[in-house]
Amino acid sequence: MSLFYPRSEEEVSNIVKSCDKHKVPIVPYGGATSIEGHTLSPHGGVCIDMSLMKNVKALHVEDMDVVVESGIGWMELNEYLEPHGLFFPLDPGPGATIGGMCATRCSGSLAVRYGTMRDNVISLKVVLPSGDVVKTASRARKSAAGYDLTRLVIGSEGTLGVITEVTLRLQKIPQHSVVAMCNFPTIKDAADVSIATMLSGIQVSRLELMDEVQVRAVNVANDKNLPELPTLMFEFIGTEAYVREQTLIVQKIISEHRGSDFVFAEDPEAKKELWKIRKEALWACFAMEPEYEAMISDVCVPLSRLAELISCSKKELDASPLVCTVIAHAGDGNFHTVILFDPNQEDQKREAERLNNFMVHTALSMEGTCTGEHGVGTGKMKYLEKELGIEALKTMKRIKNALDPNNIMNPGKLIPPHVCF
Ligand SMILES: Cc1cc2nc3c(=O)[nH]c(=O)nc-3n(C[C@H](O)[C@H](O)[C@H](O)COP(=O)(O)OP(=O)(O)OC[C@H]3O[C@@H](n4cnc5c(N)ncnc54)[C@H](O)[C@@H]3O)c2cc1C
């Protein structure tokens, strides 16, 4: 496999043109934080690493948008934006790049308030498999001008082209915020509170759930002493008075659902520390089994089905000999399990796959999806036909063939190999 580090769109275009001419596969590469084998190269070829293209090209404070090269990380971008009182509200894995985030249609803990990458990108510049460069939209906030090419590329996982430039919507850093935590006797109580909070009409900016095993992992990894019970974490934002009002309403909902130990933080450092724990929850799991690997499920269902899905998954997980944790972006109906297994033990691998399968099929039976945010890569291809139907997959394949007739862009990913038209 050859590695390229382009410094400009023109260099990307030249590399792609030459690969197309010689039918050489290309894997675009951002922060490599994706989880479903997106950046594997089963057919060899060329890797285009975007890490040298991370300039901010223009910031429009009054329009609340920014134009960046696609290799910039979301954390670097937020450091740049902070002095201007603005931020970009999507927070996937630390180290993820804006290009990779577009390509996976990612979200994160703030999606419950601000939407996913689909809702926060205004336009893109993309090098197509032919080497031609396309700009997908103007800088206007909304447009009804033709096919939505921006959203075609968002979520295409490097299979339709290389994203070189992105125009993003920005948000004002909230005037005031409070982070709250509380515990529940069962995970169903916690899930029920998530649903009741969303139905109350309160616009929480984060609503995250961890089960007792995940809290144990956090304690082990961070030398903490949090109560090892199903736990919800909330963030409320707005004016001081509005935040106080939201906190009181949610506190009442919690007390009606057997919640306890309600604590909240207003100090900026304490809040940062709490969210850091949540953001690093996946890595914390390895503190319990350092030699093991993790299989991570990422299912999402309509919100009203969340409590049922989590309860029935949890029964299955607790009965398994493997260590499994639950983490959920509960306000979106999106939940992950981290299943730890010894990669040298075939029976453990099979058990991890069985649990993952169980959760995906249960979510699909509830009108859900096999991936709320991590994307398809190679890992989720096998579920797409059941979720979307063969006609949808054939349509994807037609689009792929029209744009990439030599199948050079990230081949072997996203569209299952048996699909033809
Ligand atoms: C600890 C941890 C927590 C996470 N939390 C979340 C979460 O809360 N929400 C969430 O959605 N995800 C989460 N993720 C998953 C991951 O961070 C996201 O999928 C992220 O969007 C991947 O971005 P990346 O830059 O790392 O992309 P990569 O892993 O480098 O690539 C991902 C895909 O995008 C393609 N790609 C990359 N750059 C480009 C480009 N410029 N043009 C075209 N295609 C490109 C690649 O070919 C590949 O198919 C988490 C991961 C970790 C490790």
TrEMBL record:
It holds the Pfam family FAD_binding_4. GO terms for molecular function: D-lactate dehydrogenase (cytochrome) activity; D-lactate dehydrogenase (NAD+) activity; FAD binding. It is found in: Mitochondrion. The keyword rRNA-binding does not apply. PROSITE patterns: FAD_PCMH. InterPro entries: FAD-bd_oxidored_4_C, FAD-bd_PCMH, FAD-bd_PCMH-like_sf, FAD-bd_PCMH_sub2, FAD-linked_Oxase-like_C, Oxid_FAD_bind_N, Vanillyl_alc_oxidase_C-sub2. GO terms for cellular component: mitochondrion. Residues 1-173 form the FAD-binding PCMH-type domain. Its cofactor is FAD. Its EC number is 1.1.2.4. Keywords: FAD, Flavoprotein, Mitochondrion, Oxidoreductase, Transit peptide. It is an enzyme of class 1 (oxidoreductase). One of its GO terms (biological process) is lactate catabolic process. It comes from the Eukaryota. Belongs to the FAD-binding oxidoreductase/transferase type 4 family. This is D-lactate dehydrogenase (cytochrome). It comes from Salix viminalis. The lineage of its organism: Eukaryota, Viridiplantae, Streptophyta, Embryophyta, Tracheophyta.
